[in-house]
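Entry 14. Ran structure prediction on the chain below.
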Amino acid sequence: MAKVCEICGKGPSVGNNVSHANNKTKRRWYPNIQKVKAVRNGAVKRINVCTRCIRSGFVTNV
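Output, structure tokens:
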């Protein structure tokens, strides 16, 4: 499943795991992406959207 929101384009962000000894290794934070049925361009489609877009009302659930 794609890890990008189809409404706002939010995707993974990158940073470091930092240990107590200050060792740094790369890590990623993923957005909370859900598959929902929504009306897009007059048709019902299954799209991947983040929970913030669902909660903000940018998506009309079916």
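Residues 13-56 form one domain. Will compare against last week's run tomorrow.
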